Amino acid sequence: MALVVQKYGGTSVGDVERIANVARRVAKRHAEGDNVVVVVSAMSGHTDNLINMANSITERPEPREMDVLMSTGEQVTIALLAITLRNMGIPARSFTGSQIKVVTDSAHTRARISDVETGGIKGTLANGEVAVVAGFQGVDPSGNITTLGRGGSDTSAVAIAAALGADSCEIYTDVDGVYTTDPNLCPKARKLDKISYDEMLELASVGAKVLQIRSVEFAKKYGVPIHVRSSFNENEGTWVVEEDDSMEQVIVSGIAYDRKEAKVSVKGVPDKPGIVAKIFGALSEENIVVDVIVQDIGEGGKASLTFTVPQTDLSKTLDVIKPVADELEAEEISANKEIAKISIVGVGMRSHAGVAAKMFKVLAAEGVNILMISTSEIKVSCVIEEKYTELAVRVLHDAFGLEGPAPNIE
Amino acid sequence: MALVVQKYGGTSVGDVERIANVARRVAKRHAEGDNVVVVVSAMSGHTDNLINMANSITERPEPREMDVLMSTGEQVTIALLAITLRNMGIPARSFTGSQIKVVTDSAHTRARISDVETGGIKGTLANGEVAVVAGFQGVDPSGNITTLGRGGSDTSAVAIAAALGADSCEIYTDVDGVYTTDPNLCPKARKLDKISYDEMLELASVGAKVLQIRSVEFAKKYGVPIHVRSSFNENEGTWVVEEDDSMEQVIVSGIAYDRKEAKVSVKGVPDKPGIVAKIFGALSEENIVVDVIVQDIGEGGKASLTFTVPQTDLSKTLDVIKPVADELEAEEISANKEIAKISIVGVGMRSHAGVAAKMFKVLAAEGVNILMISTSEIKVSCVIEEKYTELAVRVLHDAFGLEGPAPNIE
After folding, report:
1. Which domains does chain A have, with CATH numbers?
2. Alpha-carbon distance A72 to nearest alpha carbon in chain B (angstroms)
3. Which residues on chain A place their C-beta less than 8 Å from a C-beta of chain B?
4. What ipTM was estimated for this complex?
5. Which SS3 state, helix, strand or coil, does residue A318 take?
6. Side by side, which strands form the sheet with B254-258?
7. What is the pTM of this model?
8. Residues of A in contact with B56 (CB under 8 A)
9. What's the rounded Cα separation, in Å, for the pair B132 and B202?
10. Angle at A161 between CA A156 and CA A167, to 5 degrees
11. Helical spans, DSSP H, in B206-348
């Protein structure tokens, strides 16, 4: 008898028919004798409707009240799923974030989980009932309703699985698992049977949308095995787990791309200490997240600084750095949205040399110019012109042997 | 500086424009220096949508989960109203029933309030903020979400006003107040300036839809003055208050009618002890509420029993009493939906004789046959043929001098 936490996203619970599908899946597991905790999101579209209502009042609704509003989305889903399960003869009991409690800090609309009380859920499971839990939401120490931000239901599910000491956390989605790269871009993409937390973190951070980064961080911290799988079939998906020896054999596990960043260059600034801090300090104050950063020294002691930011933050970025650049007597500011960031990820890089060099060579052979480079222990990212995105992904997928069913050992 | 509880129903908060109207009204009162607690219902139509979703799953959704579902309705409204108030520069803070807490028993979908904690609201008011409260909902001692049943927001408002020791509870609705009778039926109907709790209770129990009975019971028990008024203008409405001497001068305060009952007769039953108990015991077990009851002894020691039930319960009633009537060897069961109950209500009846006789005389003079009669200390009800409803209301309204601006003193 296993204790399993299942999480279903908004598409999987999009209407009462789909909720019935979820209920049948839960019922099957329950009938097999497992203890089941189901974490659900708001029905797809529901959250957007709520946001639109609030935005029709004001562009900047009070965050505390937005959380009161948004949290009704999952509350509707848990009630409908519990009603459906009960109607099928499966004992079930719903819990809001406040009822559990999923304790968070007070950062409304982007709260972080600090504790999960498990008494209520454990009591329900001990009664042989299914616990149906609202994802995405929690309660702060003063009793205010909080939400975790978009995609927070993954984090809810993993945090609850960690607190319960669950055997696994199943994340149901509309794809079969984690792929070597986006199958829409690269027909040779292959579903991975397993991947390490660190690789998943790197892939998520560079554009793979399967799992929320915070949920993977939680899973890694508490050692919760995640099973990413489809809610539309019974296939085995991808296990996200602790790194093991076999993973080291695989140099590159996946390739991700991100076309939602923009590149900003500040050229001709004096090469003196504190310049970088000045620019990035100003951006940080505006909560603009800077990704890849490259600094190089040109002629005459002048430096140029190039970095990427989300395209949605580009105009704000330019507003912020203009006065700073003026103050620094920079010669030029330029921006470019037509870029893509291509990343290869794999724990095998730690023990294999020449992986980055191979990536550069493969891209160069296709005439793809590399604009920026950034590396971590298990990742190499290259910023290239956007028009080469598909080409780059496909040639790298081939070059690192990702299409094969066997591990790509060099 | 007064402490006022305002309650706005589903029509008054039906969309964001109407919510803005409510917010302006609240803001005005707040600007005058009063402490304001606003209790709101779900946006009109919202609750029905939720019920329809649940009913598309099953006709009998689990009551506990229905409450989880339904309570999202008011939660959406409190969030939107608080967002609107904050956007207007009025400090405001929303509270769900669980957050306050409005403690109820565990009778899901029709819970009764046992206690209202006021710490949170008082703290909010002390900060100069408006408290925006979800009506209709509460929480049981185990932390389960409960709802009070349709119209429960009135009861929430009065209970919260009682717990806070508010100076008054304003119930905003789409009419100007309590009328001597339904203005749609009788053009001479006049708005009452004030009415006693007992009269309001009788009027509500016999078909006047302005206030929920339980809210009036609460107001009477705790001496909360209720001000029923329109959310669409600034007119004074009707005060529902303790009885005072001037009220005794008025014999009849209002006339109500109810066309939603059906009359059932069981004829030719043996006139023996325990017969009535047998029939009504069976109905009670099915939660069928019996209203007017008349028993009379015919020839040969046989009795006939006539009573009214809600039309919606008629077929169930007949199913229930058929076997009982067979067992009692009753001669005949008959039913009639084409009836109406006309009631005159007034505390002056206590000190004035002949009120019922006058009612019968007035109806007889118009050829209206009286099928059943029922009286209380301050009410006389006659069941008549439905087709005479308007005629009966109008002639009684005239006969008891209700149209005049002055009290109708005999």
Report:
1. 3-174 (3.40.1160.10)
2. 5
3. 16, 19-20, 50, 53-54, 56-58, 61-62, 64-66, 68-69, 71-72, 75-76, 78-80, 82-84, 86-87, 93-94, 96, 98-99, 120, 143, 145
4. 0.84
5. helix
6. B254-258, B339-345, B379-385, B370-376
7. 0.85
8. 16
9. 31
10. 150
11. 213-222, 245-248, 275-285, 314-327
Phi, psi at B223, each rounded to 5°? 60, 40
Give the pLDDT confidence of A366-406 residue by residue, as tens digits: 999 999 998 888 999 999 999 999 999 999 999 999 986 54
pLDDT tens for each residue of A65-106 = 999 999 999 999 999 999 999 999 999 999 999 999 999 999
Q: Which residue has the tokens 């009885």?
A: B243
Q: Structure tokens of A296?
A: 């190089």
**CA B212 to the chain's CA centroid:** 3
Write the pLDDT tens digit of every residue in B96-126. 999 999 999 999 999 999 999 999 999 999 9
User: Is pLDDT above 60 for A32?
Assistant: yes
Question: Is B76 in Cβ contact with A50 (below 8 Å)?
Answer: yes
Angstrom distance (rounded) from CA B301 to CA B299: 6
**DSSP string for residues in A277-310:** HHHHHHHHHTTPPP--EEEEE-GGGEEEEEEEEE
Q: What angle do CA B46, B48, B51 make, to 5 degrees?
A: 115
Q: Which residue of A has its CA nearest to B58?
A: A87
Mean pLDDT value across chain A: 92
At B351, is the secondary structure helix, strand, or coil? helix
Report d(CA A134, CA A95) in Å as an integer: 6
